[in-house]
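Trying the structure run again after the queue cleared.
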Amino acid sequence: MKKLSAELVKHLWAGVVIPAHPLALNEDRSINEYHQRLLTQYYIASGAGGIAVAVHSTQFEIRDPEFNLFETVLKWTSEEIAKATLQGPFVKIAGICGSTEQAIQEAHTAIHYGYDIGLLSMGGLQDWTEAAILDRVREVAAVIPVFGFYLQPSVGGRVFSYAFWSEFVKIENVVAIKCASFNRYQTLDVMRALANSGRHDKIAMYTGNDDNIVNDLMTTYSFPIGEKHVTIDFKGGLLGHWAVWTNKAVTLLEEVKEYKKNPQNQTANSLLRKAIAITDSNAAFFDPAHDFHGCIPGIHEVLRRQGLMKGIWCLNPNEVLSPGQKEEIDRVYRDYPELNDDVFVADFLQKKHHL
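Done. Tokens:
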């Protein structure tokens, strides 16, 4: 059983920005090695505290035999992180999915390429019982530290009971949970289950609720447990939204951390105003107006505009921008210029060009 180092445990609990790494393709839908590696370099340069790759934003089709890119993206990302000779800790997270057999195999592959944690998807298991899914988590956690993943039903996840999360948080080697239920009631189930488990100091909570990022990070959850109150908060985020404008996401997380150390109404009001702008921007990128159909192309479109991707192509040719989505991205760029990191990216690319 691989365990997470004490340094990385401390790093996760300090709260970091973890972008969900996209997949850079050429027009013929072959992988674009230059831009794939460039994206990793951008996330490191932006100040992210880790990267999650082979996840939903990287496109689940990378596992299909016709593409066979799962190992490729893990290898290249790991190589770029090693080349960066970072001074501080940096967490490498590999997406893991499929049946128990497939998930265990992917966990071993992740370890082979030097990954620290597996982000274990529960998507595509709609006919499994909750007990069977918990057994799968236990088997994967016996191989690699697990980052739990509550994925919203709109993009292949499912709703789990409070009882499920009560058992989930007891599993040894579960080190963190990404809550991406896009639902306040379901988010509360995970928090309450963790508070009641007695393991609230063992599992770091990360938001994946791209529709509620700032509010999640600002909120302290307090539950009466026996004679005392147990408090839990989201330490950071593992987000598809943070695959774009990443440098500004790093600044945002620091602002929230400062606010939590010294809460003031003026700061809270400023952050809540920013929260609305960020959620509005997320609607343009993630395309909830069309059931998230344009989610991945939306992320690609922002990166393409910045020069970090060559185009918005996906492995599935049907994954394209939805009608009006480009115009919505134009709008949020115009309405919230303070949120983008175009200047940072231009400087990053210029430095790359002159190397």
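The CA atoms of residues 284 and 330 lie 9 Å apart. Worth checking whether this holds up in the mutant runs.
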